[in-house]
Amino acid sequence: MPSYVVTGASRGIGLQFVKHLSTDEQNQVFAVVRNKATANFLHELGRKNVTIVEADVTDAKALNRAAAEVGKATNNKLDYLINNAGSASFLGWTIDQFPNSEELEKDLIDTFRNNTIAVVHSTNAFLPLLKNGPTKKVLTLSGASGHLGFTLHANAPGMVSYSIAKAALNMAVAKFAAQYRAEGFVFLSICPGMVDTTATQTAPPSEGAMEELKLLSKGLSSVMPSIPAPISPEESVKMQLDVFNSWPAERSGEMVSHFGNETRWI
Predict the structure, then answer these.
(1) What torsion do the CA atoms of 78, 118, 184, 30 make, to the nearest 10 degrees?
(2) Would you list the domain boundaries of the chain?
């Protein structure tokens, strides 16, 4: 019975990972959420092979408790970890437009904690179970904005703190890959594409998020004749898993798009 842990599983892409994976009754899926009580979409799913586990991914102790809970149900083994949890402030400012240095620093630190440190904590917490399992595969959701080539090619100055945090995240994944390559682990950072997650959003997009989208669109329009429409979470998850499940061990630690390359991101 293959076992999966998915973080940030209460909505959006994380929720879709849980839905997709749990359609196979042989899979054992553990959905990690910040608050069980508010994970309404997961409760509505009501699948016997889905277990909701509570942990804030920025809290290393909470993640260790979550890993212990998973271990009790899996004989201390885990096949796959999907690091989906993350957040972005999307303020709509470029790196020189923050009102003051204090706000810039706070946004950088908060976003780094939620997108980089959280993944390091999550991976470390579940590593002992992964080491005991036969598969040893870790997928981490990153973003094109954290890729240097994309940022320069698309002339994309926005999403400042998020982009910096995702770039650091990609290096963290590479560090795990370098350390555990000899043990047969496969780590992969992946961009999920431009995904329409509005169906499970708890609030409408902020004014800052709309400004970020304008900044990105302006840059992309200079290198792309037309920008494709967002894809569905279902399509994104299927494409990501197709790439992940076929990814070779000798390329562990790389960062690619949901197309499996570093040239096409949306």
Answers:
(1) 20
(2) 3-257
Task: Give the class (CATH, top level) of 3-257.
Answer: alpha beta
pLDDT digits (tens, 9 = 90+) for 149-167: 888 888 888 889 999 999 9
Cα separation values, 207 from 112, 211, 215, Å: 22, 6, 13
227: its two tokens: 């920008």
pLDDT digits (tens, 9 = 90+) for 200-217: 666 555 555 555 566 556
Q: Crossing angle, helix 118-132 and helix 160-180, to 10 degrees?
A: 20
What pLDDT is recorded for position 157?
82
What residues are paired with 3 via a beta bridge?
28
DSSP for 120-162 reads HHHHHHHHHHHHHSS--EEEEE--GGG-HHHHHHTT----HHH
Q: Which residue ranges of the chain lie beneath pLDDT 70? A: 200-227
How far apart CA 178 and CA 184 sit, in angstroms, is 11
Tokens of 138: 């870790």
Which residues are marked as active site?
162, 166
Instruction: Tell me phi and psi for residue 188, to 5 degrees.
Output: -145, 130
pLDDT recorded at residue 2: 96
